[in-house]
Each structure stands twice: as C-alpha cells, then as structure tokens.
Write a structure and sequence with these properties.
- By secondary structure, the chain is mainly β.
- The protein has 7 domains: about 1-80, Immunoglobulin-like; about 85-165, Immunoglobulin-like (Sandwich); about 170-245, Immunoglobulin-like, CATH 2.60.40; about 255-330, Sandwich (Immunoglobulin-like), CATH 2.60.40; about 335-415, Sandwich (Immunoglobulin-like), CATH 2.60.40; about 420-500, Immunoglobulin-like (Sandwich); about 505-650, no CATH class.
Length: about 675
C-alpha cells in the first residue's frame, strides 16, 4: 500500500531557462507482509526537469511479487519578469538652425528592443524620426513592453541653437535681357525691373550697382551687377547680361491672299478638287522667297475644314504668312440602295381554299447618309393573300427625300395537298438491363387521312413490338394518296442500358468462434477476405467494419462488408466472430478481501470476497458485450441510411439526348 503519493508537481522558471530543479516528498509503501521494496524509480526529488510535462513513476514490490505504482507528473512552466532590453536609444540631440526659423526636421536612428520571450511591442512613440520640431526644448519617448507587460523606456531631448549664415535673399533678379535696335543704331535704351533683397535679420543694404534701368546700353553684351549686404556681413549678388543687336524686323508683305473657300461634293465621296489664285509677296529689302506652302491650287481636299498656309521669307529671316481655310461639304442626290428585295413568289393552297399566308425576308435599304426611312409598305410578311396575282410595294427615302422602290408579285395557285398524318409518335426511349443487347419496344401506330378519302401505307421501316438494338434507330412510315401525294412520319427509338442489380458476393466467411487468450483478455481472428463481382465490371468496397487479424474482446462481434457498383446498388456480407472463455480472476481484489477476512476472522468474509470477485468479472463481460452491440448497431444503421438515401435519390439519366420528330411533308 502506498501512502502519500505526490500529486502533480508544478514549478516555474524564468523565461529563457530550459530546465528547473523540482522537489517533492518521496512516496512511502507498506505491505501486510512487512516486506516491500522500491524496485524502480524514474526520477529523484531534486532532479533538473525540462520545460513542459514529465511523467514520474515509483514501483514497489512485496515478497510475493505483488506490485504497486505511484505515478504523478512534474510540470515546468516559464514566467517572464524581466523587462525588454533597449538598443540604440539616442542621446540628447542639439541642432543648429538658421536664425528666424520656427521649426526644423530632426532625424535619429530608431531604438529597438529585445526580450527573452521574442515578443516585444512598441506601446508608445511620441515622435517620428524626421519630424519637424518647434524651436525650444522637446522630449522624445519610446516605451516597449513584452507579452508579460514588463516595460522598458527610452527618453531623450532635442534642443536648438540659432545662427545667421544665410546671405540676403534676392527676389526678381532679372534674367539675361536681349534688346533689338533697328539696323544703323549704335545704342538702345533698355529697361528692367530692379531686383529686391530681404534678410532674416531685417537689415539689408544695396552696397554696389553697375547700371540702372533706363540706361543707354551699347551694341553687344554688357554685364550688369547688384551687390547686397546684411548686418553680419553676408553678401548676395544679382548678375545678368544685356545684349543689344541690330536686326531687320519687318516681315514681307502678302498681296492677294485668298479668303476662306467652300466646295461641294456628292454624298459618299470623301475628297474634292479645289482651285484658287496664288498669293503674291514683296519685301522692302527686295529679297523675298516662298519658303513653305501646305497645299497647291488644284489639290484634292478631304471632307470638312482644311487649313492652307503659305510662308514667305526675306533675307533677314522675317516671315510673312498667308493663311486661309477650305471647307468641303457633301450633297446627297443619290437614292438609297435596297437589299433583299424579294423575287416574285408563287404559293400553293389546298383546292377549295380562298387564301394562304405568305412569308418572305423583309427588304432593307442603305444610304450614304446612314439614315433611311421606310415610307410605304403595302403588305406584311406572313399576311394571307387571295388566289391569283398580288403586288407588294416597299418605298424607302433618305433625309433629302431621294426615294428607292422594291416591287414584287405574289401569285397563289390552288393544288391538291398530300395526306395528313395524325398521332405520329415522338422519339421513344426504352431501357434494358445492363448486359442485354436488344429490347422489345412498343408504340401507338400513326394514322393518316386525306381529303380524297383514299390513303395507303406504302412503306414501313419497323413495327411496334420489334426487338431494337442498343443505341438510336430511325423509324419511318410513308403514306400515299390516290394522286401520288406522299407524307412521312419519322421518329427515333433509343435503347439505353440501366444497372438495377446489386453486386454478387462470390465468397463471404461463415460465423467463427475463437478461444480467449489468457494474457491479453481477448483473441485475434483471421479470415479470407470476401470477394464480389458485378455486371458493370466495377465493384467498390464501400464499408469494412473490421480487417482480418483484428483483436476481438470476449463476446460476439458482427463483421460487415458492404460492396457498391457504379449505379449505387449495394450488397452486404456479414458474419459473427465469437470469443469464448473466462477472464482470469482479479488477484488483487481477492487479496484485499482475504486481508479483510484475516482482520475480522470467520468464514463469512471469505464468502463476501468470492461474491465481489464474481460481480467484477460479470461487470467486465457486460461492458464488452455492450461495446460490441453498439458497434454493430452503428454499422447496421449506417447501411440502412445509405440504402434509403440511394432509394430516394433521383434515378440516373442514362438516356441519349431526345431527338425531335422529323417534319412531315
């Protein structure tokens, strides 16, 4: 008997450690014989245990070989109590800024943190590196935390000092200036906007100036400079050049430049030839040339507006332009073009009828304008026409009222009609069992009539009740009246196969009985596997509750195999495996009852021990039988559910596509 077997022991070590020393009170065992020994011990109190759960066991044995066990677990968990470690936390930062600045961007290397948990979160970050800071003292703070909410802080300050190194700022400093004077002059008065200077200190002076706006500047290039200085001696310059040169600035003079012109072409054309009088140019230098022209008089011009230009140039490069536009418009004088205007139609009606419906493809019209309207339509396609000659008119017009005409005649003649067939069967679909190659097929025979009262079945390809092969077979009936008018009844017979038979089980094991193994309290049963076949050539083992070589407990177990073919037909093979024999007695229970008997004395206690042992054995047998019954009941219920589901499932459509019966002439 073991006294004080420890319960599961829990220990905590710092996160990052991999082992922990664990202590417990050693278990103590006693025996009525007074002789008990610790025969096996997996660990000792004070051992180092790894993280997680470790099973600890003690085994005690008495002089007669009876054993007792003390089993418990040692669980080592980690706990995080250390704050994260911050690296790269910046020192206080001092930044020099230009005097007059109110803020400045400041950058630093971002701090980071590490922790034994490998899980660190940045909780607080008061500023971003590169952010603009107001002039004065600023404090930046980073707070990091691990998964156990241990926190580490990084704090530093940012301060600014002002200096003046910026020269005055010059605004509106002129860029280089070019001035032109007429050929023969040697100087030219030149004007510019005087530059303006400012400084952060508010104190700036113009210290030097080479020229003034409005001065007479000689031909060629002249440098102009302005120098400004602030209170601390920082200087700034404005430098630019003035270039004065002579040039002939008078362009050639154009005479007889045409005005804008309009031309008209037929709708559908895309170009038109246009003529005009060529322009003439002159220049005071006496030297002028036609340098470039976009078009010539007599060119073909596209629809719409086209710009025409002539460029003349003199010896000094001055150009004179003659520009005008030519607009080409279209005029529609052509009637629309009609397509699909029907030819004359000759129709037939049964003798005795006075009219018949006639259909035709409607004519249509196209026009270069893209817009055609149907003005007149005397009849509708599908309308009934009387016997004799009839005339149909269509009149189309475009937006300018150019008209096109479509006219054709419809002549209706009276003729004798062929026989009329009633109750011509639709396509017939029949199903035969898989493995059959033919099927007897029946249908209702068609009936034919004729206005003459004389009609005969002249040809028949098949008869109702014939045997038809698998697949599609065409069936036809031909009827003829007294004037040799013929009518046909045509349909198809389709024979498909269907599989409604379950697989055939060729071998299913018989019920078997095996003896219990006294060591393992059960037995292993083996058998030859069942075999099944099906007419479809395909059989699948759907369910197998046990495999040959399975260990079975005492009692009777039902073994089931369920086979399925392609059409979901199923067949079952079931047999029983009975494990017989008795369990060995519960020695421990008998010993405990014997000890009670010795302590009390008398035969009554021995009888009670015997009764208790029998009750334990009977209970075990009942539990095993209950498990076996539950397992087989589950399998039977699964099989019934699958069988019901397949019965209620819509049948598989294995028919060929339906073929509409042929039209009867």
């Amino acid at each position: 008997m073991i006294g004080v077997c420890p319960r599961d022991v829990s220990a905590v070590t710092e996160l990052g450690s991999t082992r922990k020393t664990v202590y417990w009170t050693e278990p103590i065992a006693s025996d009525i014989s007074g002789n008990v020994t610790l025969s096996r011990q997996s660990h000792y109190s004070g051992d180092d245990f790894p993280l997680g759960l470790t099973d600890v066991s003690y085994k005690f044995i008495d002089g007669t070989g009876n054993t007792a066990w003390c089993n418990f677990s040692a669980i080592v968990n980690t706990e995080d109590t250390g704050a994260p470690t911050i690296t790269n936390c910046p020192s206080d930062i001092i930044v020099e800024v230009e005097e007059g600045s109110v803020s400045s961007p400041v950058s630093w290397r971002e701090p980071s943190a590490m922790d034994a948990s490998d899980n660190v979160t940045l909780l607080v970050k008061t500023h971003q590196s590169g952010e603009r800071f107001a002039i004065g003292a600023n404090t930046v703070m980073y707070i990091f935390a691990d998964s156990s909410r241990n926190m580490a802080f990084c704090t530093f300050s940012i301060k600014f000092t002002s200096i003046d190194t910026t020269p005055p700022r010059i605004e509106s400093c002129p860029i280089d200036i070019s001035a032109v004077t007429e050929l023969g002059n040697i100087r030219e008065t030149v004007y510019w906007t005087e530059p303006i200077a400012s400084d952060l200190s508010g104190n700036v002076t113009l210290s030097k100036q080479s020229h003034y706006s409005g001065d007479d500047v000689p031909l060629g290039l002249t440098d102009v400079s302005y120098e400004y200085i602030d209170g601390t001696g920082n200087t700034a310059w404005c430098n630019f050049s003035v270039i004065v040169y002579t040039v002939d600035t008078t362009p050639p003079r154009i005479e007889s430049c045409p005005r804008d012109m309009s031309a008209v072409t037929e709708l559908g054309n895309i170009r038109e030839t246009v003529y005009w009088r060529e322009p003439i140019a002159s220049d005071i230098s006496g030297n002028v040339t036609l340098f470039k022209l976009s078009h010539y008089s007599g060119d073909n011009f596209p629809l719409g507006l086209t710009d025409v230009s002539y460029e003349h140039i003199d010896g000094a490069g001055n150009t004179g332009w003659c520009n005008f536009s030519i607009v080409v418009n279209t005029e529609d004088t052509v009637a629309p073009t009609i397509t699909n205007c029907p030819s004359d139609i000759i129709g037939k009606v049964e003798e005795g009828s006075i009219s018949a419906p006639v259909s035709w493809e409607e004519p249509s019209a196209m026009d270069a304008s893209g817009n055609v309207k149907l003005l007149v339509k005397t009849h509708q396609s599908g309308e009934r026409f009387g016997i004799g000659a009839n005339t149909v008119f269509y009149i189309f017009a475009d937006p300018t009222n150019n008209m096109a005409f479509c006219t054709f005649s419809i002549k209706i003649n009276a003729v004798i009609a062929p026989p009329k067939i009633e109750a011509c069967p639709r396509d017939v679909v029949a199903v035969t069992e898989l493995s059959n190659i033919r099927k007897t097929v029946y249908w209702k025979e068609p009936i034919a009539s004729d206005i003459s009262g004389n009609v005969t079945l002249s040809k028949q390809s098949h008869y109702s009740g014939d045997d038809f092969p698998l697949g599609l077979t065409d069936v036809s009936y031909e009827y003829i009246d007294g004037t040799s008018n013929v009518a046909w009844c045509n349909f198809s017979v389709v024979v498909n196969t269907a599989d409604s038979r379950p697989p055939t089980i060729l071998f299913c094991p018989s019920n078997m009985t095996v003896e219990i193994d006294q060591v393992s309290f059960g037995a292993i049963a083996s058998w030859d596997e069942p075999v099944a076949e099906d007419a479809s050539g395909y059989v699948m083992l759907l369910i197998q509750t046990h495999v040959s070589g399975t260990f079975f407990t005492i009692g009777t177990t039902i073994v089931s195999y369920i086979f399925r073919d392609n059409a979901n037909n199923m067949e079952k093979c079931s047999f029983s495996v009975a494990v017989t024999g008795d369990y060995p007695p519960d020695v421990g229970a008998v010993n405990r009852l014997q000890q009670s008997e010795d302590s009390r004395g008398g035969t009554g206690v021995s009888y009670a021990a015997l009764v208790l042992s029998l009750l334990v054995i009977v209970s075990i047998i009942l539990v095993v039988l209950g498990l076996v019954y539950f397992r087989m009941a589950f399998v039977e219920e699964l099989f019934d559910l699958m069988r019901d589901e397949i019965k209620t499932r819509p049948p598989v459509d294995t028919r060929l596509p339906a073929v509409e019966p042929h039209s009867i002439v």
